[in-house]
Amino acid sequence: MIDEEKIGQAVRLFLEGIGEDCNREGLRETPRRIAEMCKEIFAGIGKDASNHLSVTFEAEGNEMVLVKDISFYSVCEHHLVPFIGKAHIAYIPDGRVVGLSKLARTVETYARRPQIQEQMNAQIADDIMENLKPKGVMVMLEAEHLCMSMRGVNKPGSKTLSYICRGEFEDKKELRDTFFQMVK
Ligand code: ZN
After folding, report:
1. Taking the CB of the first residue and of the last residue of the chain, which one, N or C, has fewer CB atoms within 10 A?
2. What is the distance in A from the centroid of ligand 1 to the CA of 85?
3. 171 and 81 both lie in a single domain
4. 158 CA distance to ligand 1 centroid (A)?
5. pLDDT digits (tens, 9 = 90+) for 131-141
6. Is the pLDDT of residue 155 over 90?
7. Domains in the chain: how many in total?
8. Which of 24, 22, 1 is nearest to 11 (CA)?
9. Do both 158 and 92 map to the same domain?
């Protein structure tokens, strides 16, 4: 539950902390704006994706299904600055498939909270395994972390790649190779 009052107070304190005057014109409405924004960018806190993934359809065939380039915006929980990127999701159905937009919704659910990429990667893969019960799932994330681009090592444009395999993707290198080929 987002507490707008608390966020407003915290932002005012924060602005004072960095030596700003939170009564100057440009900043006056900032605490309220941030509180409002938090409702959107942290809408995934406390949610899981099972409500999206529980509606499945019977389908013949068990060929790999891959949805690539699902863009996401998340917030690094160590620095509270954005990391922005794309998710690629593949799974091998075991008699049931899910609407393709539901995979994007799953990504969204886990992106809209303070996150770390590796954790988000695992949460997406595990949720799909658990709800859809496919033969296997593979999720790859590629993202630019602004905490690396605008501070610290200052390396704009560098991307962090991570992937996680479950089920048949763990056992079969051919499947992983096909995945990598397709997302290239
Ligand atoms: Zn960070």
Report:
1. N
2. 14
3. yes
4. 13
5. 999 999 999 99
6. no
7. 2
8. 22
9. yes
- CA of 112 from ligand 1 middle (Å) equals 15
Q: Read off the pLDDT of residues 5-42 as tens digits, 9 standing for 90 and up.
A: 999 999 999 999 999 999 999 999 999 999 999 999 99
Residue 130's identity, in one-letter code, is: E
Helix ranges restricted to H, the chain: 4-17, 25-28, 30-41, 50-53, 100-111, 117-132, 146-149, 168-171, 173-183
In tens, the pLDDT along 66-102 reads 999 999 999 999 999 999 999 999 999 999 999 989 9
Residues recognised as catalytic: 76-79, 117, 145, 147
pLDDT recorded at residue 66: 96
Q: Are residues 100 and 138 in the same domain?
A: yes
User: Is residue 109 domain-shared with residue 36, that is, in the same domain?
Assistant: no
Q: Nearest-CA neighbor of 85 among 70, 96, 99, 97?
A: 70
- The confidence band for 51, taking pLDDT boundaries of 50, 70 and 90, is confident
Task: Tell me how far the alpha carbon of residue 83 lies from the centroid of ligand 1, in angstroms.
Answer: 8
**Amino acid letter, residue 159:** K
